[in-house]
ANK_REP_REGION domain-containing protein
Amino acid sequence: MTVEIADGHYRSWTEVQGLRVQSSAMSRDGKWLVAVTYTKELLIFQVAAAELAAKISLSERPSWVSISDGLGLILMGYVNGGFDIRLLPSGEVIQQRPGISNTDFLLQGSVGGENDTFLLRAEENGYISIWDLNSGTLAGLEHGHYPERTNFATWNPVDPCVIASGGDDHKCRM
């Protein structure tokens, strides 16, 4: 795996080759890069040391990954609608939410909000679910692109009170 880090400079990890990366995320401090693959793997890289810190086999196919810098967590969503909360850098599972239904669509989620303590999840039914990472509970639902599918939901990195989303209604909303 090779990553362009700045101004045409590249960093290669020879431990992993020929990957089809489904999604990736980098910590804000640039120390960690996490990636999930089409072949059901979670890869955790320590960027400065150019080391693969962990390679974890997954039982389900992942669709997205995000990092909570404030809590030191990795969040991963699966095509079955479930998601995991894992420790960074070990990848140890500390909480799992089961999926409700399998989908052929790659619905994206992201971590953000005040101190990176909330998870947004795009939902096939058109809603956006908001999860409190401290308590592990559903904090609320937004209409998103209802009645059409919501495909992604993400936080504004500058203003933790603003979210953006896109859906099958051909609109991007803030």
